[in-house]
Amino acid sequence: MKSQNISFCAGLIGKGIQASLTPAMHIAEGRAQGLDYGYDLLDLDQMKVGVDQLPDVIADAEARGFGGLNVTHPCKQAVLGLLDTLTEEAMVLGAVNTIVLRDGRRHGHNTDWWGFAESFRLGLPHADLGSVVQLGAGGAGAATAFAILRAGAARLTIFDQDHARASGLAETMQRHFAHAVVEAGDDLPMAMARASGLIHATPTGMVKYPGLPLPASLLHSALWVAEIVYFPLLTKLLSEAGHRGCRVLDGGGMAVYQAVKAFELFTGIKPDSDRMRRHFSELSQVPPQTALAAGAAS
Asked: CA 37 to CA 56: how far, in whole Å?
């Protein structure tokens, strides 16, 4: 049942976020649910403030009556000390991407891991989780590692340009998933030869960072390949993997389903995830700035 004549306002905090499709997705679904739904970009670059000003940015959003905030780079860790509660997942990951503002309290959640998990469940059903290689141990990598281990991965080998960061993430995940073997890798060709799946969680492949995150020769037809990059949806990695007969999953699903869960947390209304996915697909076919304008006007 649709809610009627209810106003709700949310926002996204981060740096350089003018191309984000999250506002358009939230606004369109809010209006489809009968809400007067507003969604503002709180771009630190545009506001000419630094991460150290986060307390003021959040306090101002509260004063303006915001019901929720999404949080992206470089603020996901910085907000932790500014919140009243954290979910178990947010504590494990050490990152928050969704803040529910309710009754004068700030509740921190992480919907990135659920977004990847849901996308993976729907997009790569019955995937072999025997031995998974992950490239990237940053914030997104923490979310995907948590998700794939929660899905039942037996072995996860994590690679990062910063080996210490890969080791730290592996140790954290191992503590929480005793059933699995979680390790930092130091021999990518060997790990890929035995791998059943590959998760890519670095910026490589984005428009700003074109290219492949590993030699194409390491891809083989027995692999599934899951991507987090969604600008563009068809990255060079997915193209190369597809040519070699791999099952592939683009990064669009993670972007959509993290927003699906955030919308539900914000409003208490279960969104139509298929509708949000269709809207994302429409938006991703046009330039980001045009998509934002369309979302705001819809």
From this structure: 23
- 76 tagged catalytic: yes
What tens digit of pLDDT does each residue of 113-133 get?
999 999 999 999 999 999 999
Q: Which tens digit of pLDDT belongs to each residue from 200-228?
A: 999 999 888 999 999 999 999 999 999 99
Question: Which residue in the list 48, 76, 208, 270 is annotated as catalytic?
Answer: 76
Domains defined for the chain, CATH in brackets? 6-110+268-297 (3.40.50.10860), 114-252 (3.40.50.720)
